[in-house]
Request: fold
Amino acid sequence: MRGDNSNGFSSSYNSTYSKYRMTGKIAASGNIMSLLYPTGFETKTSTPVWGNCFCNLFEGCTSLTSAPALPVTTLTSYCYYSMFSGCTSLTTIPELPATTLAYCCYYCMFRGCISLTSAPVLPATTLTSYCYYYMFKGCTSLTAAPEMSATTLAEMCCGSMFKDCTSLTSAPALPATTLAYCCYSSMFEGCTRLKEAPVLPATYLERSCYDRMFYGCTSLTAAPVLPATYLESSCYQSMFSGCTKLSTAPELPATILAPYCYDFMFSGCTSLTAAPELPATILAEGCYRYMLYDCTGLKTVKMAATNISASNCLYYWLFNVSSTGTFYKNKNATWNVSGSSGIPSGWTVIEYEP
Reply:
């Protein structure tokens, strides 16, 4: 099939766009750029500057078994938005060689492709806002994540990228040391077979960067090392919430906290018996709020805080933990709060020198 659509046939990703409707098993092949240019399409290296060019093109085509080649290396905004979303018979996808990305370029591209078992390498080193957002969300047969080379991140770039990929057992390497707002938010949320988390080398965090990253990963048994000493608000919010097999928490070396930095971080981690040592002496607003909520097996907490005056800093942080346990308290601390928002009733208190 050839086309002469150099001015584009989709002007908006959510209202004015062209898409196929098909029945029966259909295999697409050839160069996708041939739909835009009747000749010379082989030499094109970028999608058209207007963006949206292939958005929603095969969305919901449940009969599609294979996809055409996508050879360009420079993308434009929304170019592949939801392109194959809901293609439930698609088993393989083409190489994705693009190294220059754009806003929302791969957004929802393969969402709900439940027959997809593998994905190609993603070679881009610099990401853009929302570029991989929801890219493989709900690909329930995907067992291995694609290799990723990104070292420069952007707002929500990998948000919900593999959310609900319930067959995923391993995660890609994530080498970036400079993060961005919500960059990994919900990236592996609901990946119930994921057993091992990737190394996370960043020492300087950004707001909500790890928010819900492994939420509900019920097979995860160990957390990665978290070396960050500079935190931002909500940076670890709900990061391991609902990881019911997580038995050991990572060290948390930061001594200067940020508002809601550990909010809900380990809530519902029912196999956790000891909290990470908490070395900060001055708490921030909401910093430990719900942090260990519903950790029913938790028996040991060691906290250096002497100043807990910040609003909601310990709000329900130890709700529904073990009825007996040991709380190690800074010997210089003068505060005395008991219950779910302090030291659980029935626990033994031991003073220590930090």
